Amino acid sequence: MSLSDTACKNAHKHAKASSGKSFKLYDEKGLYLLVKPQPDGWGKWWRFKYCFEGKEKCISFGTYPDTSLKQARDKRDEARKQVAEGIDPGENRKAVKSSKAEIATNSFEIISREWGLKKVNDWDDKNNRSKRMLERNIFPWLGNKPITDILPKDILGCLRRVEDRGTIETAHRTLQICGQIFRYAVATGRVDRDITPDLRGALPPAKGEHFASITDPKQVGELLRAIDSYSGSLSAICALKLAPLFFVRPGELRAAEWQHIDLETKEWRYFVSKTEVQHIVPLSTQAIAILEELHPLTGHGRFVFASERNPRGDRCMSENTLNAALKRLGYGKDIMTAHGFRAMARTILDEVLGVRVDFIEHQLAHAVRDPNGRAYNRTAHLSERHKMMQSWADYLDELRAGSAVVPFKKTG
Q: What is residue 178's predicted lDDT score, i.e. its pLDDT?
């Protein structure tokens, strides 16, 4: 039976039956009142028992009568809701207590950091771009504020400061991150709606980020030969060689993990945070050879391209490594960038080799839909993409050797 307020008030009357020892009065759904002997009488503590990831845990909701039965039940219901959303109430409480300002559980900063740990690759890296943007542009003004109290004008005020620094692209990117955090807060029951769409049109349009790329086959061959001559670290050399073979986003390449790479099935499978989809990169024989060369160096750790400053292998290389290497080879950011390998593959596969565009778009992890408007799954055209990636690697070898290029007629 559930507790009543009278039962809570008269809990000390059970003391004789307990022989002076601590005892529990149970309510419902894991809530109970722990009654313990004290020098001046009996103390009463609210406790909530729950199970998280297969482990039984317990947290306190204060003492009775300071915390009433109704208040204890409300706290229990909120904790049960957190468990249902995959949040450990005890760990969430620790995060709040460790906050410098003793921020409430629904503060923008606490929710942002919770979102980052769950949704953003390499969030623990102090140089993570999303985290840096929030720490510089949002947290100082809105971090301590409950997310339910934040208005569109509050976010706009932060974005105006970014805009005043002359970095409108960063302002747009910061707004996108705030939108992702609000949508996470909606999903976890901390706020009713995402308010960031209310700011549509409030910022000047971004010019559009342009990543320089080489798409002329002859110049690609020259670039590949230059990469072969690079004398940096083995991790950087291998990353440079794999960048044109994989043509994934630079952040995805440098954060590649050995546990996601299967040399037997010749596939690299990972989650694309930008489009929130699972992605598969077929591995050509050339790519496998490079990975096998690198494995003795970094295979003991988490990341394929481990940071040289972190011998344990639990941090990946910096986001500037590949562009810096290209610059050392004479390819500045106005000529070629790490991101430019995507445009290189997209252009040549389509315009020179005549590969079906939907195969290419799938391999670029773009949002591709079928004629009925449904999103294709990650395994769509996988067999054909395996063939395409091997043919692409063979073609790059021909360019590296200086072979002539003969355009093919489109198929499919």
A: 96
What domains does the chain contain, in order, with CATH numbers?
5-97 (3.30.160.390), 99-199 (1.10.150.130), 217-400 (1.10.443.10)
Q: Hey, which residues does 52 pair with through a beta bridge?
A: 55
Catalytic residue among 75, 173, 249, 385: 249
183, 302, 376, 378: the catalytic one is: 376
Q: Which of 100, 126, 274, 409 is catalytic?
A: 274
The residue length of the chain stands at: 412
Active site residue 97: no
DSSP label at 316?
Answer: B
Instruction: Write down the pTM of the prediction.
Output: 0.51
Partners of residue 57 on adjacent β-strands: 50
Band (pLDDT 50/70/90 cuts) for residue 127 is: low
Model pLDDT for residues 173-221, shown as the tens digit of each residue: 899 999 999 999 999 999 999 999 999 999 988 765 567 888 888 899 9
Where do the DSSP E strands lie in 276-411? 277-282
Which is the catalytic residue, given 57, 119, 366, 386? 366
Task: Supply the DSSP string of 137-150, one letter for each residue.
Answer: HTHHHHTTSBGGG-
Residue 409 has pLDDT above 50, yes or no: no
pLDDT at 407 over 70: no
Distance separating alpha carbons of residues 110 and 125, to the nearest angstrom: 17
Here the tokens at position 74 are: 């409300």
Percentage of the chain exceeding pLDDT 70:
86
Query: Catalytic residue among 173, 254, 339, 362, which?
Result: 339
Q: Examine the residue annotation and report whether 249 is marked as an active-site residue of this protein.
A: yes
> Does residue 160 carry a catalytic annotation?
no
Contact 354, 408 (CB under 8 A): yes
Catalytic residue, from 241, 254, 315, 342: name it.
342
Q: Is 270 a catalytic residue?
A: no
Residue 411, sorted as left (phi over 0), alpha (psi -120 to 50) or beta, turns out to be beta
Encoded tokens for 41: 């009488």
In the chain, DSSP finds a helix count (H) and a strand count (E) of 16, 7
The answer to whether 362 is a known catalytic residue is no
342 counts as catalytic: yes
Alpha carbon 259 to its chain centroid, in Å, reads: 17
pLDDT tens digits, residue range 2-55? 888 888 888 777 665 556 688 888 999 999 999 888 877 788 999 999 998 889
